[in-house]
Amino acid sequence: MQLDTATYQRILGDELRRLRKQRGWTRRDLNRRLQSDISLQTLATYELGTRQCSVVRLVEICLALDEVPHELMARVHQRVFSDSPVGRIRVDLRKVAQDTQPELLPLRRWAKGRLAELNGTHGPVDVSLDISALERMAELCGVETVELIGRLRAIAGAAEPVE
């Protein structure tokens, strides 16, 4: 089994951010609850997955979030090794452009723009999105990456994992 450390860090950060936002806290709120002095920028880099976090620091953050560390790691592990958004997703632009979910408006606009560029193309218009693109789109839509992937899969046949 191979470990993609960049993906693991991004998913860990996504889970930390989700926990913080679930509590309605800003990074500053979380920072005030920590035992050690961590800058807001450092917290941001942990949440973005661009900086590695020591085990002791991770446990401290989990305790501040009132989260059991091994439960957080179990969720991260599951996302990385089983139901992971790692890899690519194939999306039919026409179906995305026709979807009516309000949260997906930025994605719908993007799909319509891509279709306009391909003017005259008939039938399904598939594009393949990697995890980086999905993360950016999820941020624009104001949803978590894994939620965006679920929503894309729910659009009847609109998104399929690419092997």
Automatic annotation (TrEMBL):
SUPFAM superfamilies: lambda repressor-like DNA-binding domains. SMART domains: HTH_XRE. InterPro entries: Cro/C1-type_HTH, Lambda_DNA-bd_dom_sf. It comes from the Bacteria. It comes from Actinophytocola glycyrrhizae. Coiled coil: none annotated. This is Helix-turn-helix domain-containing protein. CDD domains: HTH_XRE. PROSITE patterns: HTH_CROC1 (PS50943). Residues 16-72 form the HTH cro/C1-type domain.
